[in-house]
Amino acid sequence: MENGRADTLQIRQVLLLFVLLGMSQAGSESGRFSVAEEMQSGSFVGNLAKDLGLEVGELVSRGAQVVSNDNKRRLQLDINNGDLLLSESLDREELCGSTEPCVLHFQVLMKNPLQFLRIELQVRDINDHSPVFLEKEMLLEIPENSPVGAVFLLESAKDLDVGINALKNYTISPNSYFHIKMRVNPDNRKYPELVLDKALDYEEQSELSFILTALDGGTPARSGTASVRVVVVDVNDNSPEFEQPFYEVKIPENSILGLIIVTVSAWDLDSGKNGEVSYSFSHASEDIRKTFEINQKSGEISLTASMDFETIESYSIIIQATDGGGLFGKSTVRIQVMDVNDNAPEIAVSSITSSIPENLPETVVMVFSIRDRDSGDNGRMICSIPENLPFIVKSSVENYYTLETERMLDRESQAEYNITITVTDLGTPRLKTQHNLTVTVSDVNDNAPAFSQAAYTLRVRENNSPALHIGSVSATDRDSGANAQVTYSLLPPQDPQLPLASLVSINADTGQLFALRSLDFEALRAFEFRVGAADRGSPALSSQALVRVLVVDDNDNAPFVLYPLQNGSAPCTELVPRAAEAGYLVTKVVAVDGDSGQNAWLSYQLLKATEPGLFGVWAHSGEVRTARLLSERDAVKHRLVVLVKDNGEPPLSASVTLHVLLVDGFSQPYLPLPDAAAAEARADPLTVYLVVALASVSSLFLFSVLVFVAVRLCRRSRAASAGGCSVAEGPFPGHLVDVSGAGTLSHSYQYEVCLRGDSGTGEFKFLKPIIPNLPPQCPGKESEENPTFHNSFGFNM
Ligand SMILES: *[C@@H]1O[C@H](CO)[C@@H](O)[C@H](O)[C@H]1NC(C)=O
Ligand SMILES: *[C@@H]1O[C@H](CO)[C@@H](O)[C@H](O)[C@H]1NC(C)=O
Ligand SMILES: *[C@@H]1O[C@H](CO)[C@@H](O)[C@H](O)[C@H]1NC(C)=O
Ligand SMILES: *[C@@H]1O[C@H](CO)[C@@H](O)[C@H](O)[C@H]1NC(C)=O
């Protein structure tokens, strides 16, 4: 075998050489055969003998064999019958690729003579390949706004087959957006184009897929597919749109800060940034920006500053939603502020009169206006003042009120009013405002000064020092200021004879009364006058009061002995019969005291006696009586000194000397008579004196009785009500005799003294009243009726 092969190899090389040479020499004949690809090995290709006109034997004899250029044994020759058979299955695509026709060249070598026969074998294509896409999945991104008719390139498919079996057409699964158009390159390559039939809308369909099919022209046709995914690229073709074109909200004005009032929302059909919406206010006023805030992302509108219905009742806010691509939509939010009773009423005073003269009829005190910045019931108001005041509130023109006095005011009863004006609104809760004002009532001179007493009684001790302050009057005036400044004055006395100006003076400012000179009780026991008080108002008002000055007695008068007279040249001598029994009334010492009251209470006592024990003096009566029976041994002449003492402080006294003669058989006829001539000479005038004296004394007695009765009655009636009588009251000491009344003789003795016939006529003396004025027994009463009584009364002898 080895040798065989080596031999054939040698032969071949030789042959090749011959062939090369022979080709040029000997004319070459060729046979053409054709066979379909992919035939099984051994398949019959053609009969060499027949086609080339060779004898079968010749083939064997000449040792015919098939050689190929590439030394591959694809054909084999059956030399017995000259059939060419495939020694292997042929793949046209492998052998020729896309070259068409696919021809294989063979030589048939024969020796003796050497001859080359050319054989061409065409391998025919069969449709044994399907079109194939290199990319099974294709992705196309197409902006949604691409115009209809736009063309997009797709990957082409490959089909290894050629000719009719090659790629023929492309199709896509039916859809409404695209159709396919096949294009042919200059190099005959076929590729598909996608043509847009209908506008894409990302928002409607953001993605679509279809199958691209490539078909070849074989029979049956083969196909290959690929999937095509078209992604629609969003274009910002949609503006954000609000859910509502108009939002309306109502919120109370006192809503808390931070409150979310409303949430707006807008959508955008675009995606990604184009669909991202942010919210903002569009051309908002300063007020809106101050008061509200919008959350850029969430669309929440919140309150950032407090609202005031009274300032702004509603807000209209244009809000804008903007997407990432700059498109925007708008909506309006209307915020209605609801009134809340958050404003108290206000009071504005237009005019005010804070001081009002009293006694004025209805007067306007204040004009004021009220207002409430709320509306509705929250703004309706009621105006009031406390009820117990003499003021009223009147409504005048709209919201204007006046505060007026209801009646005349009286400063003296209330000089000041604190008025609280209350204004309340009708909201819920009710709010109120108060205004306080003080109205003062100014004075008008409507009150006269008033004396503290209608009548003043002043007591002045006699013998006072001049300019002594004896008392005060005072008057008050209920007015104020000058209207209440009181000046005092003395009014002209009713009794024109009373020298008032020289008696008292008054301090015009203080009302103090002064005695101008020393007063003498014995001369003037009492006097009265009127004082006036006037204010300084205009016109001035005045009033008056009565002042009664009582001069109080001082013990400045010693008792004065009326009987027996002391200054007579002939001392008074009493005759006492020796036969007189004990207790015989010798005489009676009569004394008076110019003072009154206690100062005039007199007591008598025996100061000296010639023979003590024989005579006694009754202390309160002044009666001198014998103390025992007289005896013969008693001296004839006795001298008695009787002391008369008043009860003043210190007491004053007087003494009187009595001469007593003890006589035997004392009787009228034995009385020594004055000599007849003298008696005759004096008879006539004496008789006249006697008659006059009798009449006088009788009338005096009668008057005394009357006065006594009057005094009793007066005392009784005045006992309870503070004695107006000048006579001092008090326990009357039993040993004293009251001779108040200066010279009022004790009535019973008066008579006795004057009529004692048993005294010698020569010693009979008439009493001449020494005290010119009789005392007023009840000055409080009588002096008013007859103030000049004591001046006019009296008698002279
Ligand atoms: C390809 O196929 C379509 C229909 O699928 C047809 O309308 C078109 O004419 C065909 N093209 C070719 C070149 O055969
Ligand atoms: C008015 O008010 C003033 C001050 O508050 C007070 O001093 C005065 O006594 C008051 N007057 C009356 C009449 O209430
Ligand atoms: C007004 O007066 C009343 C009492 O009279 C008092 O309660 C109130 O506080 C006063 N108001 C003002 C504003 O002074
Ligand atoms: C005695 O005194 C009285 C009164 O003082 C007087 O009137 C009278 O004349 C006097 N008699 C004599 C004698 O002096």
Automatic annotation (TrEMBL):
<dbReference type="GO" id="GO:0005886">
    <property type="term" value="C:plasma membrane"/>
</dbReference>
<feature type="signal peptide">
    <location>
        <begin position="1"/>
        <end position="26"/>
    </location>
</feature>
<dbReference type="InterPro" id="IPR015919">
    <property type="entry name" value="Cadherin-like_sf"/>
</dbReference>
<keyword id="KW-1133">Transmembrane helix</keyword>
<keyword id="KW-0325">Glycoprotein</keyword>
<feature type="domain" description="Cadherin">
    <location>
        <begin position="348"/>
        <end position="451"/>
    </location>
</feature>
<dbReference type="Pfam" id="PF08266">
    <property type="entry name" value="Cadherin_2"/>
</dbReference>
<feature type="domain" description="Cadherin">
    <location>
        <begin position="452"/>
        <end position="561"/>
    </location>
</feature>
<dbReference type="InterPro" id="IPR032455">
    <property type="entry name" value="Cadherin_C"/>
</dbReference>
<keyword id="KW-0130">Cell adhesion</keyword>
<feature type="domain" description="Cadherin">
    <location>
        <begin position="134"/>
        <end position="242"/>
    </location>
</feature>
<keyword id="KW-0812">Transmembrane</keyword>
<dbReference type="InterPro" id="IPR050174">
    <property type="entry name" value="Protocadherin/Cadherin-CA"/>
</dbReference>
<dbReference type="GO" id="GO:0005509">
    <property type="term" value="F:calcium ion binding"/>
</dbReference>
<dbReference type="Pfam" id="PF00028">
    <property type="entry name" value="Cadherin"/>
</dbReference>
<keyword id="KW-0472">Membrane</keyword>
<keyword id="KW-0732">Signal</keyword>
<dbReference type="InterPro" id="IPR002126">
    <property type="entry name" value="Cadherin-like_dom"/>
</dbReference>
<protein>
    <submittedName>
        <fullName>Protocadherin beta-11</fullName>
    </submittedName>
</protein>
<feature type="domain" description="Cadherin">
    <location>
        <begin position="576"/>
        <end position="671"/>
    </location>
</feature>
<dbReference type="Pfam" id="PF16492">
    <property type="entry name" value="Cadherin_C_2"/>
</dbReference>
<keyword id="KW-0677">Repeat</keyword>
<keyword id="KW-0106">Calcium</keyword>
<dbReference type="InterPro" id="IPR013164">
    <property type="entry name" value="Cadherin_N"/>
</dbReference>
<dbReference type="GO" id="GO:0007156">
    <property type="term" value="P:homophilic cell adhesion via plasma membrane adhesion molecules"/>
</dbReference>
<feature type="transmembrane region" description="Helical">
    <location>
        <begin position="688"/>
        <end position="711"/>
    </location>
</feature>
<dbReference type="InterPro" id="IPR020894">
    <property type="entry name" value="Cadherin_CS"/>
</dbReference>
<feature type="domain" description="Cadherin">
    <location>
        <begin position="243"/>
        <end position="347"/>
    </location>
</feature>
<feature type="domain" description="Cadherin">
    <location>
        <begin position="68"/>
        <end position="133"/>
    </location>
</feature>
